[in-house]
Design a protein that fits this description.
By secondary structure, this protein is α/β, with parallel strands linked by helices. It folds into 2 domains: about 55 residues, Structural Genomics, Unknown Function 30-nov-00 1gh9 Mol_id (Rubredoxin-like, Alpha-Beta Complex); about 100 residues, Rossmann fold. Helix 3 packs across helix 4 and helix 4 packs across helix 5. The N terminus is likely disordered.
Length: about 210
């Protein structure tokens, strides 16, 4: 478990050991060996005994596992700090456009290249009607296009449904149906068939031309 004070891993089970419930400053609970010095940032909650008793106590009092700071921000309607992925990529594309953003099997995509490619995909998807509230299935191999399309979906304001090409076609169709996705970006070899929404294949000769015009 990660906290601002320390990282506390669940102790290994030892037969006959006595445990205690511990609590950190963010209102998160864990178990620790009774009688041992507590890690920095943790204090005894007051319950000790068998592992089962301590676990039962944690389940009783720890209804919301989110850190207290996150619970407070959520209650106040304040989003958690930090930039979105698109914002980070855009900023780094301006600062270090040639730096490698994603490296994979046989490809390396710079921040500048990723930002530009994802912008083209975002504009293209918007031209198809993709926008806020939409869900786009992304069924691609683990190449450079996967990252550009995924980021482009987010920039278009839509949600991304990542799909594994190794899934059986029936499972892919079921996931698309259950999710309610009406758009799918895929490769010709991976298309599950039977999808009633709009499909665009990255290896369709017409798609690169459409992207270049964006």
């Amino acid at each position: 478990m990660h906290t601002s004070g320390a990282t506390l891993s669940e102790p290994q089970t030892v037969a006959g050991a006595e445990w205690c419930v511990v609590l950190n400053g963010e209102g998160q609970y864990s178990l620790w060996w009774a009688g041992r010095e507590l890690p920095v940032g943790w204090q005894a909650e007051g319950t000790s005994g068998t592992r089962e008793r301590c676990l039962a106590r944690v389940q009783e009092v720890w209804a919301d596992p989110r850190p207290a700071g996150l619970r407070r921000r959520t209650a106040e309607g304040v989003s958690a700090p930090g930039e979105c992925v698109a914002g980070i990529v855009g900023r780094l594309a301006l600062r270090t456009p040639g730096a490698v953003a994603v490296r994979g099997d046989g490809f390396a995509l710079s921040f500048g290249g990723l930002d530009a490619a994802s912008n083209r995909w975002a504009r293209y998807l918007r031209s198809l009607g993709v926008g806020r509230g939409a869900l786009v299935g992304v069924l691609l191999g683990r190449g450079a296009e996967l990252h550009a399309v995924t980021l482009g979906v987010w920039k278009a304001g839509a949600g991304c449904l990542p799909l594994d090409p190794e899934f059986p076609a029936g499972r892919l169709r079921a996931l698309l149906a259950v999710s309610g996705a009406r758009f799918l970006v895929s490769e010709v070899a991976y298309g599950p068939g039977g999808f009633e929404g709009q499909v665009r294949y990255v290896d369709d000769p017409e798609v690169p031309g459409a992207l270049a015009r964006q």
